[in-house]
């Protein structure tokens, strides 16, 4: 008698279903896809799916040594700087990267050394936010601690590939809107969220090398993630030189630049004495909960507004413009394990960041995460 066989049609899983089955966050699944550890297929409707038979058996472990590698202070004193970076207010120098594997496991021709202002936490803010972006799966500039001939700062590799150019927001807006003041970073009322969205436009691609998803499939959807990040970390510096587009010279295509420059976040300019007082006071107007509600973006709601938007309002406005993308970023934020946030803070040396600052930052992130998740209601 002929043996009967049963043909089984492979089951296609969504990112969310894979995350639940593997007991990991969605951002972990996206990272596996990016690294080629999971193969995806496209449905006839263009949706990303994963064949259940091809799932990896377990989440790859990351060693503590790999984590701490990001927090080591790199000494670049023996190198000679190239050109001075003129954008922004801080002292910054470009270095030629002769050994591209020395600081990052990636090819890059140049890296920037930025000197944090004395008495602030600008250096640790950059490194911490870099790691928070990793948890969110958000395209971002890389940062590491560094020192150069007695000056402390951070180094960051150029995210502008060869045969491309970076066009900052002020240059883009000046070309589109008459009377735009290209030199004025703050109190620039023409720098509205609506105009920024219009300037980025529907034809701009997601950041180079970043994996789009069903819900976040265009540059505006990624911008929503940048604004969620701003609200989470209390970033008050999303002015028109802190976002931009990358233009491919050959194809003429435009790509959204990764998010960069987060030094003015996480209460990095506050004194430890003030942080301690806010964490212990009974005055409701001075608590951490009150503090986080005061963070303003450098984006305006309307040109007639006197003050820029609060960071959470900038996110909610963008959320309404790209609802599916906003929900997806909120789900990613919700999935982040508080223990992973604590690990990031603990890995920063006390030489660079006090315990008071670490506790203060943890509270900021906890409070703002709660406030952001409330926007879904």
Report the average pLDDT across residues.
87
CATH topology of the largest domain, by name, is: Phosphatidylinositol 3-kinase Catalytic Subunit, Chain A, Domain 5
User: Rounded to an integer, what's the Rg over CA atoms?
Assistant: 22 Å
Named at the architecture level, the CATH assignment of the largest domain is: Orthogonal Bundle
Strand content: 5-15%
Count the helices. How many?
A: 13
State the share of residues found in helices, binned by percent.
25-40%
The strands making up the biggest β-sheet line up spatially as: 4-7-8-6-5
Structural class: alpha+beta
Shape: globular
Spans of at least 5 consecutive residues whose pLDDT stays below 50 are: 1-6, 57-66
Reported for the largest beta sheet, the result is: 5 strands, mixed
Oligomer: single chain
Write down the secondary-structure element order. Answer: EHHEEHEEEHEEEHHHEEHHHHHH
Task: Report on this structure.
The protein has helices at 15-22, 26-34, 64-69, 122-136, 169-176, 193-200, 219-233, 272-280, 288-292, 311-321, 323-335, 338-346, 355-374; strands at residues 12-13, 40-42, 48-51, 74-75, 92-96, 110-115, 144-148, 151-157, 164-168, 244-248, 254-256. The strands form three sheets. The protein has a five-stranded mixed β-sheet with strand order 4-7-8-6-5, covered by helices on one side. The chain has a three-stranded antiparallel β-sheet with strand order 1-3-2. Strands 9-10-11 form a three-stranded antiparallel β-sheet. It has three domains: 12-54; 64-157, Phosphorylase Kinase, domain 1 (2-Layer Sandwich), CATH 3.30.200.120; 164-374, Phosphatidylinositol 3-kinase Catalytic Subunit, Chain A, Domain 5 (Orthogonal Bundle). With 377 residues, it is an alpha+beta fold. The longest helix has 20 residues, at 355-374. It is globular. Strand 2 and strand 3 form a beta hairpin. It is built from 13 helices and eleven strands. Mean pLDDT is 87; it is low at 1-6 and 57-66.
